[in-house]
Amino acid sequence: MNDTTTTPALPRWSLAVPPAAAVVLAVTWGRSLGAVLLVLVCLGLGGAVTAAVHHAEVVAHRVGEPFGTLILALAVTVIEVALIVTLMTSGGEKAASLARDTVFAAIMITCNGIVGLALLVGSLRHREQEFRAHASGGALAVIVALVTLSLVLPTFTTSTPGPTFSGAQLAFAGVASLVLYGVFVFVQTVRHRDYFLPKGSTSDDDHAAAPTNRTTFTSLGLLLLCLVAVVGLAKTVSPTLESAVESIGAPVSFVGVVIAMLVLAPETVAAVRAALRDRLQVSLNLALGSALASIGLTIPAIAVASIFLTGPLLLGLGAKELVLLVLTVVVSMMTLVTGRATLLQGTVHLVLFSAFVFLAVTP
C-alpha cells in the first residue's frame, strides 16, 4: 500500500513544542531557577504535557485500542522508573523510601485522582457512562496483588528489621511483579483484547482516517521526547518545590507527590479527554494501566538496583497509608463491579484523592 498523505499533517505547534521543551530542559538542567527560568520551565512543562497527549492520541488512532493507551502508560512509566533508580543510586539514605513513596503516590493518583476526574467530567457531560466491568475489575485484581506483595508485606515480614525485604524476598517480589504485569499485558493486547475496547463509544474519531505510517512514527518519536521533557522538567523544578513546601510547613515527602502529579499529567489529560468523548473504558485503561506499570516495572527495577545500593530500602507502608490503600481498594471494587459510572462514584474517588493530598501535607 502506498503510504502517501491521505490524512492531515500534524499541526505545526505539535512539531515545534517537543524540541522546544527539550531545549528548555537542556538550558535549565542542574541550574537554580530564578523567576524568568521558573516561568520558562513551567511553560515548557505545560507545552510538553499538551503535545504528549496529542501525539499519544495520534499513535493510539493508528495502532488501535488498547495498544494506544498501553504505549502512553508504558512510556511514561519507563522514564519515571529510570528517574527513580537514578535518584536512588545518588541520593544515599535520604532516598531509602523514594520508591515506596513514589509508587504509593502513583497508585493514589491513578486509582482515585485520574479515575475520579474522568468519572466526574464524563458523567457531567453524559449523565451515565458504561464500561466493561470484567476488564477493569481484572486490572484492579492485579493491582491489589502487586501492591500487597510489594508494599504491604514488607511491613509484616520478620526476616529483616523494619519495613524492608530480605534479598530473597525482594527478588521474589520483583519476579512476581514482572510475571503478573506481563500476563496482564498479554491478556489486554492478545488473548482478550476485545475486553478493553471502548463500550458504546460515540466518538467521531472512530470514523476518521487513520494516520499514515510516517505520521505515526513521527508522533511516536515526539511522544517519547515529550515524556523525557516532562520528567526532566519536573525534576528541574523540584528544588523550587522543596522550598515552597518547606515554607508552608509540609513534609519534604510531599515534593514526591507533586512530582508524581506532574509526571502523570499526560495520562490525566488524555483520560479526561477520553471521558468527555464518552470513551470511559479508554480512561480506565489509562489510569489502571499506569498504576499497573508503575508497580510492575518499579519493583523489579529497584530489585536490580538494590545490588548497587548501600543503605536500607524501605518498602512497607505505614498505618495511615494502609488505611488509605484499603479504602481505595474497597471503593474501587464497588465502582468497577457495576459497569456503569455516575457523578457519585467520581465524587467519592476525588474525595479520597483529596484526603490523600491533605494527609500528605499535614501527616
Automatic annotation (TrEMBL):
Its main location: membrane. Residues 35-189, 219-360 form the Sodium/calcium exchanger membrane region domain. It is found in: Membrane. It is a multi-pass membrane protein. One of its GO terms (cellular component) is plasma membrane. The chain crosses the membrane at residues 12-29, 35-55, 67-90, 102-121, 133-156, 168-187, 217-236, 248-272, 284-308, 314-336, 343-361. Keywords: Membrane, Transmembrane, Transmembrane helix. Pfam families: Na_Ca_ex. It comes from the Bacteria. One of its GO terms (molecular function) is potassium:proton antiporter activity. This is Calcium/proton antiporter. It comes from Actinokineospora spheciospongiae.
